[in-house]
């Protein structure tokens, strides 16, 4: 008797997930437009444009390399490669989380005019951060080539490490993005 209840519960959950995926699929063009808008707005008045997404991680990595490697005399093989990997992943996480938190209140006027599921805005902000991550991977490849990192059979699986963090984070983005709408008006100035 308990197994029948569990089976019905799992079917109900699966139907709910299918419905949400269908709604998300229906709003795919809106998500694409929002991501395109975010990318264009980020680089609208930038002299370097999209090149800045590659130069910024490189310059930060060079400064951190000089400070920690030369001033503190750390002798770690491929330290700059480790540094750019960690910095790229950390930058993606912080950017995606910060944008997801403010995604719903930032699009408040659109939400008041038309019905759109709120998670569409959170997903679009995270996707635009993912596009910036792809640009930053160019900087990572440049560092790998310059520092002559020995490529191994595990390198093609490297994007899988990012996928693990990408699949882990959406829950926090949705919770913080949707749950913090009330409190963020009061805490944004702290």
From TrEMBL:
The chain crosses the membrane at residues 47-68, 80-105, 126-146, 166-183. One of its GO terms (cellular component) is plasma membrane. Its main location: membrane. It holds the Pfam family ABC2_membrane. It is a multi-pass membrane protein. GO terms for molecular function: ABC-type transporter activity. One of its GO terms (biological process) is lipopolysaccharide transport. Residues 30-158 form the ABC-2 type transporter transmembrane domain. The keyword Cell membrane applies. Keywords: Cell membrane, Membrane, Transmembrane, Transmembrane helix, Transport. It is found in: Cell inner membrane. It comes from the Bacteria. Belongs to the ABC-2 integral membrane protein family. This is ABC-type polysaccharide/polyol phosphate export systems, permease component.
